[in-house]
Amino acid sequence: MKFEVDGLAAYAYTGSRPFAPGQPAAVFVHGGGLDHSVWIHQSRYFAHHGFNVAALDLPGHGRSAGAPPDTITGMAHWVMRAADALGIGRLSVAGHSMGSLVALEVAGLYPDRIEAAALVGCAVPMAVTSALLDAAKAGSHAAFDMITLWGHRMDAQLGGNPAPGMWMTGGAVRLLERSGPGVLHNDLNACNEYRHGLDTAAKVACPAHLVLGREDVMAPPRAARDLVTALRVVRVIELADCGHMLMAEQPDAVRDALAAAFPRPG
Amino acid sequence: MSGPGYIKFDTLSLHAGQKPDPATGARATPIYQTTSYVFRDSDHAAALFNAERPGHVYSRITNPTTAVLEERVAALEGGVGAIATASGQAAMHLAIATIVGAGEHIVASSALYGGSHNLLSYTLPRFGIETTFVDPRDPAAFRAAIRPETRLVFSETLGNPGLDVLDVPAVAEVAHAAGLPLLVDSTFTTPYLMRPFDHGADLVFHSATKFLGGHGVAIGGVLVDGGTFDWDASGRFPTLSAPYAGFHDLVFTEEYGPAAFIMRARKEGARDFGACMSPTTAFHILQGVETLSLRMERHVANTRKVVEFLDGHDAVASVVYPELPDHPDHELAKKLLPRGCGAVFSFELEGGRDAGRTFIESLRVFSHLANVGDAKSLVIHPASTTHHRMDAEALARAGISEGTVRLSIGLEDIDDLLGDLGRALHLSQRAVKRRADTARHTGAKRDAGVAQKEAGPRRAAS
Ligand SMILES: Cc1ncc(COP(=O)(O)O)c(C=O)c1O
């Protein structure tokens, strides 16, 4: 769905469905250099199971115009302005990687509007290696390669994609290649500079569901330990045979975890 | 998707797309010879039908064995996904039908496999799709033939059978400048010799019947989406960028991003045209793909020796292989095909059609049949077989004469191949000489006033 935020074009994938009045809302936030399509196996399901779904493209990503916000907090405020523009009041939010920090921030800054937060592939702090930051800053393809290679566990790169006939590695690289100049560096830098995640966690009132890949080397489960301690109501779901690209590597398990996290109507 | 850190080609050839079977531990890819898959419950069924979750419903659309082949070829090509089809022809048709419709137009190379030429030249016009054929060696000709209603640029990586090397980067640039994707038939090169996506092509298909399968046992095709083309930015492809009433108003570019094309091809083309590959065929072709590098290396090594042998032989008027210095694409081949120009090539025998017939019939190791890319060496006369529907002008445009012989070099011991060719060449020339002698003889008799009807030498090109 095309709409506007701050007078600029914005896009939210809704499962090709109009919003139905009275349904709960589920908002999805993608990771660095990516767009709404990373949620394809999950967002469509919710759209057909009683939710008004908005899988957002952050500004400067996918189909949303404008410069990408340069802080996680800036992204969080934009997400809520997007929700306002879409007529969404209360919502459940899912975020992946950088998007999980945005979801955390949203939950901490807008406690009265958030029903539940699912933080997928989350680590706080989310330190980014200088090799990756430098490559992204230089606009080098090596940055896309690093994310693809570190993001997917070896088995996923070898194959056996749950989506028949699709090669996960190829899909990931092509999606990253579509990111605008400087966008990936902006995003990685925002992750790296996000320092107050544990303070935010203490302000989160809703239940938080951490969905972590046991073989994730970019956001390994141990890197979420302090976050787990800081959150008030928290459930941790560790997925076996799963790296950092959880929605692609374990689409069914992630969907089930989100379905358990987001309060349903009735 | 190649380079440091990525899994290498030979490993992908063996592993991509497959894990040891979760149910049985089988290391080889099991043949899931089933039409359909049990739903866990009604919600599971509905979610699968509605593309809310990945999985298999019905083997016309997807099958676990076929999916391994699809993912493997996508990985070897460096694409985002693939669809295996009933044949190479079906793969080409699926590519076209997914993005071209009635009233629209294709610009294609004139040096195509005869079957591809038939589809474009005779069959698709019945469905309102016209094609302009251009010289594959002339990127400017592609540009000049593009019209407002053009939707696709198409060529083979190595022209069939003239071995015109497609300047993929140049033709891709022409296509992209016009907002069009470049589709290439990569059958003759396979991803081992060239990965067209690395050079700017957007869509690739194979007749998997040939080198991918590699053993002449199964007909099949594979269509691969490079995920590179921006269908939205082009604005010419409503099948991908506008709501599709045939699937709940799904917009493929929004839903699947870089995989929009291949998902439409599956959700519409595989579903509605139904030219799917059987799981058993997929298994056979997978066995071939596992040894693709080893076989292509040997195919090329043998071919180089045969080319050298024929090139120096008195009975051979000319040999068409881009690695020969006099081939028009010699320099381009060095750049785009450093590992070799495949194992299918043509040569012109001295003595024309009669010599050709004797030659082909004298071969013992080479088999005379209509195929290429078998592990076994093959021979054919294109003008009377693969290209027989073309008139003389179209033949000439495709770089074929009536005396052209096409070889597909297999994996046999090179000594036996050269021996077989040498003997057949000798016999072919002896036959020509005998006929010429007879003609001289009967000519002399006729001069002496003896009536001898129909004994003269036949025209070489009859
Ligand atoms: C270059 C080329 N493309 C396409 C095809 C068609 O493939 P199939 O016979 O698998 O339909 C062939 C078959 O000879 C071919 O040689």
Task: Give me the secondary-structure topology.
The complex is a heterodimer of chains A (about 270) and B (about 450).
Chain A: E1 2-5, E2 8-13, E3 25-29, H1 40-47, E4 52-57, H2 72-85, E5 91-96, H3 98-109, E6 114-120, H4 130-137, H5 141-151, H6 154-158, H7 168-177, H8 183-193, H9 197-203, E7 208-213, H10 225-230, E8 234-239, H11 246-249, H12 251-261
Parallel strand pairs in A: 3-4, 3-5, 5-6, 6-7, 7-8
Antiparallel strand pairs in A: 1-2, 2-4
Helix pairs in contact in A: 1-12, 2-3, 3-9, 4-5, 4-8, 5-7
Chain B: H1 9-15, H2 42-49, H3 64-77, E1 81-85, H4 88-99, E2 105-109, H5 114-123, E3 130-134, H6 139-145, E4 150-156, H7 168-177, E5 182-185, H8 190-193, E6 203-207, E7 221-225, H9 231-234, H10 238-241, H11 252-256, H12 260-272, H13 279-290, H14 292-311, E8 316-320, H15 330-336, E9 344-349, H16 352-362, E10 367-368, E11 378-380, H17 392-397, E12 404-408, H18 414-447
Parallel strand pairs in B: 2-3, 2-4, 4-5, 5-6, 10-11
Antiparallel strand pairs in B: 1-7, 6-7, 8-9, 9-12, 11-12
The complex binds pyridoxal-5'-phosphate.
Structural account:
The complex is a heterodimer of chains A (266) and B (462). Chain A is built from 12 helices and 8 strands. By secondary structure, chain A is of the alpha/beta class. Chain A has a single domain, classed as 3-Layer(aba) Sandwich (Rossmann fold), CATH 3.40.50.1820. In chain A, strands 1-2-4-3-5-6-7-8 form an 8-stranded mixed sheet, sandwiched between helices. In chain A, helix 2 crosses helix 3, helix 4 runs antiparallel to helix 8 and helix 5 runs antiparallel to helix 7. Chain B has 462 residues and is an alpha/beta fold. Chain B has 2 domains: 281 residues, Type I PLP-dependent aspartate aminotransferase-like (Major domain) (Aspartate Aminotransferase, domain 2, 3-Layer(aba) Sandwich), CATH 3.40.640.10; 140 residues, Aspartate Aminotransferase, domain 1 (Alpha-Beta Complex). Chain B has a 7-stranded mixed sheet, with helices on both faces. In chain B, helix 7 links the parallel strand 4 and strand 5. In chain B, helix 1 runs antiparallel to helix 3 and helix 16 packs across helix 18. Chain B is globular, with a radius of gyration of 24 Å. Chain B starts with 8 loop residues before the first helix and ends in a 15-residue tail after the last helix. The relative contact order of chain B is 0.12. The interface between A and B is large, with 40 and 57 residues. The complex binds pyridoxal-5'-phosphate.
